[in-house]
From TrEMBL:
HAMAP family: NaMN_adenylyltr. Its EC number is 2.7.7.18. Catalyzes the reversible adenylation of nicotinate mononucleotide (NaMN) to nicotinic acid adenine dinucleotide (NaAD). Pathway: Cofactor biosynthesis; NAD(+) biosynthesis; deamido-NAD(+) from nicotinate D-ribonucleotide: step 1/1. Coiled coil: none annotated. Keywords: ATP-binding, NAD, Nucleotide-binding, Nucleotidyltransferase, Pyridine nucleotide biosynthesis, Transferase. Residues 17-197 form the Cytidyltransferase-like domain. This is Probable nicotinate-nucleotide adenylyltransferase. Belongs to the NadD family.
Amino acid sequence: MLRTTNSSLNSPIIHALFGGTFDPIHYGHLRPVEALAKQVGLKQVILLPNHVPPHRPQPEASPQQRLAMVHLAVQDNPLFTVDTRELQRQTPSYTIETLKSFREEVGEQCPLAFIIGQDSLQSIHTWHCWAELLDICHLLVCSRPGYARQLATPEMQKWLEQHQIDTPASLSQKSHGYIYLAKTPLLDISATDIRQRHQQGLSCDDLLPPSIQNYIDSQNLYS
């Protein structure tokens, strides 16, 4: 059962979720979220490996392999925990459905946040039932290299400005409805690039944790 209050401070805990294919998980996932957690004061981030991502090509690694890599990546980092509910589905991993399930668990008053990148914010209007997201959670947005902070259309920019906040403390004062644009490290790392580098026999040591590199080698992934 998820805790809803911080007993030492007697204030609401922000339950923060971060989903992804994680094929493989890498520093471009982990380090911006760690920086975001410091800015916002997150005590824990729940990683949600996708089973069937609806907006991108299907993963090369199996669900079991991707889950194993996620566990290896965060095994010594108390900030992160892992939730497998999306991997247990046989249908597409629609964020809105996952958020609804978490909302049922934590109750209506607990702050719930979903972490995305600036790239996802730019295309969020293509997500399934995207307009309902802020009825359920806050959006915490990590910076991404090469993506503008301004949204593509006047309508989407107006939507952003209506919900954007500049003070992270506001996130714990309301259960949902805010967008916070964090200033996180601009790491130009992608899982696609890592897979391509592996196919070419190039080193990826600076792109992902050693435990993940070792696992990829042991499983003969992305070769």
